[in-house]
Write the structure tokens for this entry.
Amino acid sequence: MNALRLLIAAGLIGNLRAPSNTTVPRWEPIQPSVREAIVRALGFDPGFDEQMDYDWRGRPALYVAQRGSSSIAVIDSATGLMCRLLHFSNELPHLDAGTALPRREAQDRAMTFLEMAGWRLGPEWRLVECDLVNHGVTGFSWHLVYHKWHRGVRLSANLRLVMHAGSGMIRSFRLDDDAIQSGLELRLKPDEAVAAVAARAGFRRHSIHTLELAIGYETPEREGRQDLFWEMRQMNLDAQGLRDSEVMWARVNARTGRIVDFGMPSAGFSGSNPALPRVEPAPGSIRRVPASLRGWDTASLRKVRWPRTVFERAGRLRPSVDLRSGGKR
């Protein structure tokens, strides 16, 4: 595999990082245990034939690829489970939305895939998106997104899956579930965050369409220090038109008070969040911050016993596997 292919693959797979050391990664023939992990998840052998050591969000892993193809997978070394997949096949695109898999079946197939891959999501995981997306000449696919919550706080964890709308074949899969770092601080109350966003937008009166406390990172790479963020969407009750109708998203660091992400129709978009369609003020919108969000502070957050990650849970449910030798430790 040459350097050009490495660069192309890195661009295709988003936030997958190169190994942290400064030496050039060494490719080796794929181990049987690695191939088995992939076949177990997909139900067939996609033909991956080489691997190298890798770092997956701070966890030892193996980066697996196929010569002459941009398809890749990442296998978590501690559990032997696949946590990333990008699979290009010769399957014809599905061009008719009317004959696409029903939404319920797409969700069921996603759960079946996760079970085959060895992942068990706890009740704290919830499906937040299940959309049939039209990619034009490349056809329709189902896009599913799951997030993880604990006691009303959204954690630094998400699962994203793209599925062929006709056959149900998994085209892309990514599972992130970061352990919660110690030392989280909440200095900014929700009312203060809401007021700061309204002031930046120039709203005199507003309603809160959504408001959430989330654990995450300031950088798009989702690296470094974890922080708490107030994430929200606001409606302008005195809007004169679309340009000043709403804050489609805002994200405020609850430790520093910095508005990290902010998007309005009139101001363009900052940050990496996708543009959301305009939503008219509805009976579900709220004028005041819910009492459940007012109760959080630094002291109460530091007493929380956060749930184990899916990687920690998988490690407790199955023996540790030495992927390099193909056997159990």
